[in-house]
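Moderator note: this is an archived Q&A kept for reference. The question asked for a predicted structure of one protein chain; the sequence and the answer are reproduced below.
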Amino acid sequence: MSKHKEMSALVGKIVQKAMRPYDVAGKYNWIIIHDPLKMLRTDADKIYKTVSAFEQKRDVGLIITSGGGEIEPAYLISKLCRESTTGKFIAVVPRRAKSAATLLCCGADEIHMGQMSELGPIDPQFDGLPALGLKNAVQHLAELANQYPKASDMLAKYLAASLKLENLGYYERIAESAVQYADRLLRKRTLPLKGNSLDVAKLLVYGYMDHSFVIDKTEAQNIFGTDMIKAGKEYELGNSVYEWLSIISSACEAAGYGFYMYGQPSAECNFYKKGK
């Protein structure tokens, strides 16, 4: 057995041991997403293999730690979790489920959060910059032109030289796509939502100015309602798993490695050399 498989087997045993003391451990088919990198299309394939391997349909519990990533795989993973259960799909957020990871959580019947949990705006990024940033920049320049009429010609020339109008339209359509994805996921939930699903989706995409804005448990309850945002034994289980995975991450970091995990608690982990 290779070192990689030995380490994966050890991580699986640690995760399962962390879950064992909790009664809810046997209630769900559990999925873990623990990823310091970007959520990619290939990650949706991993979750597809995971749900296809479930021996029986039960409620699905997803423990997710993610800074976000691509919108499309997040949507697909959420749908896979929903469609692999005849009952309830819950998401447990021990710490961070930002941007695309928040979109993923929109498909859950319940999101279990604690004092350190945070969701975030669904804010598509291109090269580390927000898709809506271009539109905001144009609006700001228009306001400057209105405020300083004598500079309007200079600002107009600057826009003509630096801005491709098709990019402005494209980025706006990407944001609208994020609204559509969130709305579709929210409408598939089986429990009541505080507001209209489309209004909630628009708030998550357009309602916050900072990509890193912290949507904590209280803020999330204001958005989704108390029927959706919970803090039960599922959160305690998820937090225990997170704490162990965090220790493993720190040990890997000290050795110059990182790791991420998509799948069941016994799933094979992915180790990678930092800087490569």
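Archived answer notes: The domain at 3-123+188-273 is CATH 3.90.226.10 (2-enoyl-CoA Hydratase; Chain A, domain 1).
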